[in-house]
Amino acid sequence: MAPSPERSLYTSSIMKGLESRSTQGDNHKVSFDDGETDNPHNFSTSRKAWVTVQLAALTLTGSLGTSITSQAQSAIEGHFDISLQLTVMTLALFVLGFAFGPIIWAPISEVYGRRWSMLPAVCMLGLFSIGSATSRSPTSLLVTRFFGGVFGSAPNSNATAALGDIYSARTRGVAMIMLSLCVIGGPTVSPVIGSALTSNPDLGWRWTEYAEAIIVFTVFFVTLFCLPETFGPLLLKRKAVSLRRETGDEAYWHPHENEKMRFNNIATKYLSRPLRMLILEPMVTCLAVYAAFVYGLLFLTLEVFPIVFHEDRGWSLFHSSLTSLALFVGGVLATPINLANQPLYIRAVKANKGRPVPEARLPPMMVGCCLFPAGLFMFGWTAAPRYPWPLSVVASAFIGAGFNIVFQQSLNFLVDVYGSYGASAVAATTILRSLLAFGLPLTARPMFRNLGVGPASSLLGGVSCLALPIPFIFKRFGRKLREKSSFAPVETG
Asked: Apex CA 303: angle with CA 299 and CA 307, to 5°?
């Protein structure tokens, strides 16, 4: 089979970058020695755990910012004398920033390392959070929220890659679970924080953003001093420079020394390719659309909770916000389903001579695809005040469980399928899911008020049922689809 144009382009760019060192041979090409402690894969278990905690905390900073103002929308409406529908933009624009941020932070990560791609951005998130807290007009609030999302997306874009720097494919799954819980935990826990601050007469809605800034800067300063660089090529570049300086031998080199930030790098690697994969690769298209749909519905649900529990049932702002924790609890309770599949996946990889088996990631998704619409239907038809409130809360837990399973396994599947192009496949889902998470919350109040909670939720549940066949189709025809793909490497034998 002839090499794909993408792979030929990649090989050509590497060869051009090595021309200046071509006469020196591979004997002086720097690599990690066996057991070298500077190799992130050789970090001790305790150090890997500490790095994982820091990456999870960085991810949480952006996730918390998404919906921390969701329970303050009525207060913002009264303060600025704007429509309640416009205040939803404080959530929507922050999430929209997540669609644009990865285009910036991904190439920075691949050239200058994980720390430079995350820590300055997180610091800027803290500054923009203060800007939101001190806003004197609706325009300034919305603008600072958008740019907060752009900078807050950096850890969400690169923390997964940093985990890949320190963990092998077999052990990465458990660490990925922690990150995925932060993705769902941030938006579901922050409404509780926001409502507690907004309800306090001595604090008010501005303290939702001050609290976000305090959390962000706390995590920033801890990681500034404690988070090591984990990007292997950058570490080897530094090693080559150090060896030349210590030995005086200019022959020591590493290909990453030729990597520079260029506009064409960004355009071809992180814009053009993800969009082409989104359009031309059926597996990317189906999983990206579905993952984006469940991600968008997560934020839509956060907008519906105040309608169901605060307005219809008459609960206080704080007590109604507690119901969002059901989404997080559902995600936590779904974790054993993902963990239970890990031994099955490891056996499948061993049988495939150590190569990834994407189809072995699908059994949990088959469960998640059923839990998600079941939760939507149950929530819709138990939301009325005449039904006991625990029914709606349990339904929310089903939604959270379905989301966590589908979201995590979709990303795992895409990375397994596309290998070196996995980042582009994930970038496609990130852009699309952020766009849907921007748009769907804006439809929450008009749709649920005009149709009613039951019919509107059932409509969404019906749409989500359309995705039920996806994991079964990929399980049956996945390998054939991969063999026809120009991006997915398929090894035989």
From this structure: 155
